[in-house]
């Protein structure tokens, strides 16, 4: 079997932009949390699949907070970045920001760590390419990802 290549976090960074539409909101005109989770899951899945070069499924999402409201017409920007590849699972750091089209300020809306598992054609977990962190932030996230995985295993 050929050796899997090592890849950089920057190679799979995924940015997704959405505009909040009336169908995405509650009766107060505020973005529904489930819609934001859906958009974040898609961005994370694209990031995971670009790294893995395989179909990937969501295995878990850690705790999620909604820090600011978003209203109809607001622009949502979601950034997904891999922090660490383990054997067949990988952690994806997903952040979402909100911006009003008339304002210059961008606020952090939500942040979470998603775990995806890469699958082979027979739907069994597939081995992942290793991740080589480059920047100080990437190296820190890489170390923290192991602690988060170990923390999950103890639950
Ligand atoms: C995720 C899934 C593929 C794992 O399959 P499995 O047979 O339990 O696989 P394993 O026990 O061999 O674990 C495979 C890897 O997944 C990780 N994993 C499994 N369940 C996990 C969970 N809930 N959270 C985080 N990681 C998990 C394991 O730690 C392991 O990681 P590693 O290979 O990097 O060490 C399987 O549980 C599944 O298909 N779940 C449904 C996925 C889905 O439909 N997602 C959409 C939900 S709507």
Notable traits:
alpha+beta, 32% strand, Thiol Ester Dehydrase, Chain A, elongated, five-stranded antiparallel beta sheet, binds coenzyme A, 155 residues
Report on this model:
- By secondary structure, the protein is α+β, with helices and mostly antiparallel strands.
- It has one domain: Thiol Ester Dehydrase, Chain A (Roll), CATH 3.10.129.
- Helices cover 25% and strands 32% of the residues.
- It contains two helices and five strands.
- Strands 1-3-4-5-2 form a five-stranded antiparallel beta sheet.
- The radius of gyration is 17 Å and the shape is elongated.
- It starts with 13 loop residues before the first strand and ends with a helix.
- The mean pLDDT is 95.
- It binds coenzyme A.
- Coenzyme A (COA) binds next to β2 and β5.
Short description:
It is built from two helices and five strands; from the N terminus they run βαββββα.
Question: How many separate helices?
Answer: 2
The coarse silhouette is: elongated
Remind me, CATH topology? Thiol Ester Dehydrase, Chain A
- Average pLDDT: 95
Under CATH, the homologous superfamily reads Hotdog Thioesterase
Catalogue the ligands.
Answer: coenzyme A
* CATH class designation: Alpha Beta
Order of helices and strands: EHEEEEH
**What strand line-up does the widest sheet have?**
1-3-4-5-2
Distance between the termini: 35 Å
DSSP helix fraction:
10-25%
**Reported CATH architecture:** Roll
Q: Taking Cα atoms only, what radius of gyration do you get, to the nearest Å?
A: 17 Å
Give the DSSP E fraction (strand runs of 2 or more residues): 25-35%
